[in-house]
Design goal:
Layout (H helix, E strand, L loop, with lengths): L1 H33 L6 E3 L1 H6 L7 E11 L4 E5 L12 E4 L12 E7 L21 H11 L8 E2 L5 E13 L6 E2 L5 E3 L11 E15 L3 H7 L17 H10 L5 H11 L10 E5 L19 E7 L7 H18 L10 H18 L4 E4 L3 E5 L7 H15 L6
Parallel strand pairs: 1-2, 4-10, 6-13, 11-12
Antiparallel strand pairs: 2-3, 2-7, 3-4, 5-12, 7-10, 8-9, 13-14
Length: 405
């Protein structure tokens, strides 16, 4: 009898302990359910570009300055723009279906084709929904506005840069370079943005504290005021085919390496009904592009989409921009020996050289780069032109495109 009572007391104690554990777990679950979801992590641009892969997939809050330039749509650090890396900015993208208007004026995106021979699996990413608030509409509108230039060609010259607080999903990789085999063929993909060359991308969820700053073009405007440029060869009334106009310009480039590179740049664009893996699209490129393999095949298993914004590139500017994006495709598809892993700075430098040749041969007396860098002035003494153009391009790539060597 005593044994039975002792067993009953032990069972009761165990029951009480078990009830206590269950209640404790329930309280913990209720507390967990009641706790608010973790908010975005506060970061700065330089921390992200230093170690982009460590932020991959995180929701972050960044105070930065957004640049919507020629082939840039990037966030730079508001207080320390030069972070000391090859790419000192974070590429900015909107979620698919956002239908916003701001973004890069010209852009090349790379995607595996249906017959891609490398190893690639599209990453799983948490969806982001854009809050199209009053702040976002102001933000988007400001970055869409172009500088009302004078007579010179001003490729992708935005009127404003905009400082704001940006919240979104951060995508990051340790190495943004395209992966190649020993023959130079692309067998794997790296980063984001133009040429998939940026190791970090912010997919925007919301924006606040929007503060615009108008870019000062007064010095270049004063130089070009009241002047006019010679119409490009073949640009008669009603001439509205940018590629045909670009080909006319290329035919007038003096024989030599520059002419050869210019013609290669235009040769990448497909002729009527030709399927060569390159697409030319006129529109706005600002949304996250598809990362999964496409339905189309390509000669090298890779698709290259060149997008040009007709609203911010018109007439001769549109034709000249074709040389720029075409040169990018040439360098991506068949890099010169030793240039397989060339940094973005080198790729941009080489494309701008070809672009400038096209503009000059096309009759431009002046050419300005985004941020008010005078890149070409026909009045410069012949023996000073190369130095002046080189200095302007270096300043532009460092200070506007946020690229380092």
């Amino acid at each position: 009898m005593r044994l039975k009572q002792r067993l009953e007391r032990v069972s009761m104690k165990r029951f009480i302990v078990l009830i206590g554990l269950i209640l404790a777990c329930e309280c913990g679950l209720h507390a967990q359910a009641a706790a608010p979801a973790a908010g975005p992590v506060d970061v700065n641009v330089c921390d992200v570009v230093k170690s982009p892969a460590s932020f991959d997939g995180k929701m972050v809050r960044i105070k930065g300055t957004v640049v919507a330039g020629f082939d840039e749509f990037i966030i730079k650090d508001s207080t320390d723009p030069n972070c000391g890396f090859q790419e000192n900015g974070i590429w900015l993208s909107y979620p698919q279906g956002s239908k916003a208007k701001s973004g890069a004026v010209a852009m090349v995106t790379v995607q595996p084709a249906h017959n891609f021979a490398g190893s690639w699996k599209a990453p799983a990413r948490t969806p982001v929904t854009l809050d199209k608030s009053k702040d976002f509409k102001q933000f988007d509108s400001l970055l869409t506005q172009s500088h009302q230039k004078g007579a010179d060609m001003c490729l992708g010259c935005a009127r404003y840069e905009v400082t704001a607080t940006l919240v979104g999903r951060l995508d990051g990789v340790a190495n943004a370079m395209l992966k190649r085999d020993t023959s130079g063929k692309v067998v794997g993909f790296g980063g984001f943005g133009n040429m998939n060359a940026y190791p970090a991308r912010l997919v925007l969820e919301s924006v606040s504290n929007v503060t615009p700053k108008e870019i000062d073009y007064s010095k270049t405007d004063a130089i070009t005021k009241g002047d006019s440029s010679t119409p490009p060869p073949g640009s008669g009334s009603g001439f509205d085919d940018p590629l045909a106009l670009a080909q006319q310009v290329a035919s007038h480039i003096s024989a030599g390496p520059g002419a050869d590179e210019a013609k290669k740049a235009l040769a990448v664009f497909p002729k009527s009904r030709e399927q060569n893996g390159v697409s030319l699209v006129y529109g706005v490129s600002n949304e996250v592009p598809p990362e999964e393999p496409a339905a189309k095949d390509s000669p090298d298993g890779v698709l290259y989409t060149c997008t040009l914004n007709r609203d911010r590139l018109q007439g001769g500017s549109l034709a000249v921009a074709l040389f720029h994006v075409g040169k990018h495709v040439v360098d991506l598809r068949g890099p010169k020996p030793g240039n397989e892993d060339a940094p973005l700075y080198i790729q941009e430098n080489d494309s701008w050289v070809i672009t400038s040749i096209a503009a000059i041969v096309g009759g431009q007396k002046y050419m300005t780069l985004p941020g008010a860098y005078l890149f070409w002035n026909v009045a410069w003494p012949a023996d000073e032109r190369n130095d002046k153009m080189g200095a302007a391009l270096k300043d532009y790539l460092n200070n506007e495109a946020m690229l380092g060597q």
